[in-house]
Amino acid sequence: MIATATRIFEKPFNVAIVDSKGVVAKEVKIQQFVPLQYEAVLSTEPTLPVGTHATRLEVRVCEDDPQVCKVPLPGSPWYIPLSVTVMKATNLTALEQVPGVPAWTTYQGNAAHSGYAPASFDPARFSRRWGYPETGDIAHNNPVAVDNGRAFIAERSSGNWPVFSLRAFSEQTGETVWRKEFNGIEKMSPPAAADGKVYVVVKAGAYKLQVYDQASGQLLAETWVNGFNETYAPVLHGDSVFVGSASGNGTTRVDAATLGTTWQIDRVEESWDWTPAIDGSYVYMYVDSVLQVVGRNDGITAYSIADTGFVTQGGRIGSVALAGPGSAVVVSSDRLVGFDLATRTRAWVIEGEFVGAPAVAKGIVYAVNGSSLEARDLASGKLLWRKGIGMHGSMQARVIVTENLVFVSEQLLTQAIDLATHKTVWSYPAGGSLSISDRGVLYIGGRAGKINAVNLR
Fold first, then answer.
1. Whole-angstrom distance, CA of residue 403 vs CA of residue 8
2. Are 201 and 208 in contact (CB under 8 A)?
3. Helix, strand, coil percentages for the chain (3-state, nearest 5)
4. Helix (H) or strand (E) run with residue 332 in it
5. Are 436 and 442 in contact (CB under 8 A)?
6. Model confidence at 131, in pLDDT bands (50, 70, 90)?
7. Residue 173 has pLDDT above 80, yes or no
8. What percentage of residues in the chain have a pLDDT greater than 90?
């Protein structure tokens, strides 16, 4: 645990923080990091047993030695209540299929990128299942794809010449089932997983879509595709794999059985952090300030909807999230934009500080706007409710939703907010990409390859 406390004094004093109950370790690092301000870094006592421990921190500000403090500043000491909960390192309960919940196969769970898991979960039953420590580049998050009781991540080591690897975990135990290390590649997409296979795009001079066996990690097949730059995972839909590209081409459709390219289409501007959304008829891309809709089977433009009055300039443009047959939404350049697919018009646009990935379910879109989570009507964009979550425009913000909860995460914290009361009912001191498996496990894929697996049942 790390805590920071700051108070401004009229002149320098000596400061100490004392915990008589032994919840906080005796060694407390205190430094004056700017004139007349002090920062204290505290750690919990490593021998604390499992359970909740309450204490009261005594903050002493003194002219003499603060351990003696015969000359305290008037008003000193101050007292800060503190509660620390120590959980089991692992809680490997038996896992069973959650009725109605599909596998989390790709970015935001599915080809629609809805971020929706259709089940209810009781926060009182949440517990840490297992964790995987930091192993690589601190700037690199690890989105988790989950299928057939295995979780899959793409790892990137630290350094000027990073090493990439593809790893499979057992959902049950958290142990590594297999690991495939890649030599001489420059980039690697997050994985997608379905039908006993794992799909990744790698760059080794040119770009390849590679397919691996989920159980053994054996390379089954590979094919050349156009460059993907920094896009998200491949998208699996029916008999096809769709690969988004940022370097001159928009999307490539590949036959899942033969790995033959069915079609590919161009885009104008170079961009990253996006992936196409797919339904039974169309592929949806937000391209050059336009929602471009092409036929799923032929790649021919069916129609497009202009984001009137706004011009993108490359960079992070956002991925489309679909809500049934009639609506789509995208976060792009601080804006939340809704499209009516039936009338083929832009339905609404909300200016703000929107970041990260939204989630949509039952006619409501959930998105992070500055330091708040907002729930808005999908048809009109009308604000339904807002919840302050303490995030400040983090580009890492991620949102996923269930029948009764919305989970929101950034780099350092994940929260669950009750959809009925709009109150935070659970939090976890780690953040990153979010996934919910069909066996009721929440995965938080954080920086440097760290993964936290949380039992939701």
1. 46
2. yes
3. 0, 50, 50
4. strand 327-332
5. yes
6. very high
7. yes
8. 55
Counts for the chain of helices (H) and strands (E), in that order: 0, 39
CA–CA dist 38, 7 (Å, integer): 7
Q: What is the pLDDT of residues 385-435, one digit of tens each?
A: 999 998 654 556 899 999 999 999 987 889 999 999 999 999 998 888 999
Which pair of tokens denotes residue 346? 């832009």
Beta-bridge mates of residue 455? 127, 441
Residue in 450, 350, 353 with CA at minimum distance from that of residue 395:
353
Number of residues in the chain? 457
Task: Using the predicted structure, report yes or no on whether residue 297 has a pLDDT greater than 90.
Answer: yes
DSSP run (H or E) holding 250: strand 249-255
Contact at 8 Å (CB) between 143 and 105?
A: no
Q: How far apart are CA 114 and CA 436, in angstroms?
A: 12
For residue 178, give the amino acid letter: W
Residue 317 DSSP code: -
Distance CA 388, CA 313 (A): 30
Q: How far apart are CA 419 and CA 407, in angstroms?
A: 10
**Residues paired with residue 406 on neighbouring β-strands, in sequence order:** 401, 417
Band of the pLDDT at 138, cuts 50, 70, 90?
A: low
Task: Show the tokens assigned to 355.
Answer: 């970041």
Cα-based distances in Å from 171 to 110, 133, 218, 300: 19, 16, 19, 40
Instruction: Kindly give, in sequence order, each residue whose CB lies less than 8 Å from that of residue 421, ignoring residues fewer than 6 positions away.
Output: none
CA–CA distance, 91 with 200 (Å, rounded to integer) = 31
CA–CA dist 196, 213 (Å, integer): 6
Indicate the SS3 state at residue 320.
Answer: coil
What single DSSP character describes residue 255?
A: E
Read off the pTM: 0.84
Cα–Cα–Cα angle for 146, 237, 301, nearest 5°?
Answer: 140
Residue type, 64: D
Task: Say how many C-beta atoms besides its own lie within 10 A of residue 249's C-beta.
Answer: 17
Residue 199 pLDDT more than 50? yes
Q: Which tokens hold the place of 434?
A: 């979010």
The residue written with tokens 């809709």 in the block is 293
Q: What are phi and psi of 108, to 5 degrees?
A: 55, 30
DSSP secondary structure letter of residue 76: -
Question: Left, alpha or beta for 103 (phi > 0: left; psi -120 to 50: alpha)?
Answer: beta
- Of 87 and 423, the structure prediction assigns the larger pLDDT to 423
CA distances from 358 to 107, 154, 287, 334, 456 (A): 12, 23, 18, 12, 21
User: What is the predicted pLDDT for the residue at 53?
Assistant: 93
